[in-house]
Amino acid sequence: MAGETFAQLSLTELAYTVVEWSSFSCHYYPHRILEDSNAQDSRWSSKGTSPEQFLLLKLVKPAVLCSVTFGKPPKGYLFNLREFKIYVGEKKTHMVQVLHSGLYNDDESETLPVSRYADLDKKVMIPCFYVKIVPIANWKISVNFFTICNIKLLGDTNQKLLQTARTNFAKLCDREATRLCMRFLRQKRCKEAFEALMKQENTLLEHPQLTELYNKLVDHGDFDAVESIIRKSYADNLFSENMRKCSYTPEWELLHSSSPRPGVRGGHQMCIDSEEGKIYLLGGWNGNCELSDFWLYDIKSSVWSLIQEDTSVHGGPTARSCHKITFDTVNKCLYTIGRYVDVTRDTPASQLRSEFFVYSVKENSWKLLSKDTANDNGPKLVYDHQLSIDEENQIIYMFGGKTISTGEGSDYSGLYSYHIPTRTWKLLRGTSNQNIKTGSCSLKSRIGHSMCYYGPKNQLVIIAGQRNRDYLSDFLVYDIDTDMVEQVSMDMSQNQGPGPSFTLRANVDPLTEEIFVFSGRELDYKLSENSVQNSFWSYDMICKQWNRIYHNDSDDASYWEEMKTVEPSPRFAHQICFDTINKKHYLFGGNPGEVTNRSARLGDFWKLTLHKPCIKDLLNRILFLVRKQKYLELCATDHISALKYLQNQVAEVTNHNDPAHSTQFRKLASCLCQPREVGDVFEQRSELLEQLFSFYPRSMKQPDKSLVELIL
């Protein structure tokens, strides 16, 4: 029963009743979420936002819950939830969180898959009789109540499936309860009771190697044996997962070059040919007019050269900004589509065509692939969209952006693919999100987002952007083979990632399977205002973890004047590209967001190198912790031996090139000059053990929770 897909389950709509609630306002009763109506008053509204508000639903028949569909209020009454949690369980006193997400702030209903499993291996399904919905935050901060419209539940009521789920879930709960008791007994040094419980229940608290580590360190203080275990773990590659989670250290370098070189601009485009070491830059807006110049930067010689002063003269695109380009390293071709047009009633239709160009590096020439892609089953003219290319299969993907027309208003563009060999467009996802596959999330179009092609799994990664007036902080993965969308996160900041952003830029390293993100214009929900600040992040697609590599939110003009050759000043509408071979990031230009000078643009060019400690450095860091504890224990009994140990063994595993680590080492010497009691060695060693455990994979360790934390 491990890891069943939606297609393998017998899904049906689940009937339910509303049995408990926190509060309700006026005639917006809790049971009104059962009404499948577009009426403005067909909803539940709470009296306030605190204390915790909730709705508790009881299924008519027990099931394994698979997804929840949220209806939306009609336009003009948008009180959608930006954040909420869902819990399920067979007993309302024992419920498991299966979803922490939010809704987009529009009037289209949304179906969100929920986690069906209670374990990391996805072998134990959660039987469900109760569903608890807990709203946390609204999109509109000033609204002091929560609203939920029609709720539909989808799940599997198969009795055989349910019985298996009940049995396995009960065993899992029993095993985890036993492990919590074992952890508590060991902390209390009740060794006999610990071993008796382990033998009776035939359950291990953790991997045997970690149990041995505990015995040698905490019980016996055998530091040599502890080091042997750690070295064996190192040889067995057990620290590789922790190594992936280590953050990078950034090193910025301002790249200088003599004229000619590109001028200031924002809304431009930049791409890289890593194999040849060439960066291409096209067009943009300099604060006064759109540009049509085309540049090449040679990484090896650090020299810019002007390929064409005006691409339109050479059969290429006219001056433009907010367009997009992508580079095909296989055929050495650059593709570009889209642009911003300031439309008036007098704008001729000929200026609103979606032209599609390709530039051949080998032939040094432009070719118009389509006068208007809308006539070729492709997108209409758009701006602030995104392009990514699958070079192996020769397919270009284009998503989002706003369409431009002479009519009132504008619409968003969907997800398209373009097959290069046959020159054919295909609409993969429209903007209505109708008839999407069961188990798939919605793919909401937007502008100012990021999109990368993730080759290892043939997926598109879509991050943040702006939809209508709302800045988004979602992280979506579109699986091209299955046409399924996974919502990794509705708000990345809840997972230590970037906050809501516009013109955030992202690149992917297919070898290390990491996404790198450079911030743009950000929104602070709490302050309800946006700002321009610098942040650089990495996301590990294997470990599913964000790391903030660099951040500077200073708005002091004098500071940035002083640091203008040290680190880039805050900006948005910039461009960044990644050299996948030499692992360097390149940043050019952008809009500094100056309130007093809205036409200001930047023309600086930066290289970013990221440094991460090697696995041997990590081993020394772990050994340093062990030897530090042994040294501190020696200080309490034998100062001479402690001094020799510090000068030799501790110094041997200290990174003296790291200022923080070197300072920590030097401070240890003060322990020799201060009276020091032995203290509670058991407690000190236990704290060290927790530090050592943190370097091992989660699957090997004891439970994160403690029995004491569950009491009150």
Automatic annotation (TrEMBL):
Pfam families (alphabetical): Beta-prop_ATRN-LZTR1, Kelch_1, Muskelin_N
Domain of life: Eukaryota
Domain Attractin/MKLN-like beta-propeller: 353-552
GO cellular component: cytoplasm
Domain Muskelin N-terminal: 12-208
Keyword Repeat among record annotations: yes
Keyword Membrane attached: no
Keywords (A to Z) from UniProt: Kelch repeat, Repeat
Record-linked InterPro entries: Beta-prop_ATRN-MKLN-like, CTLH_complex_component, Kelch-typ_b-propeller, Kelch_1, Muskelin_N
UniProt-recorded name of the protein: Muskelin
Source organism (scientific name): Vannella robusta
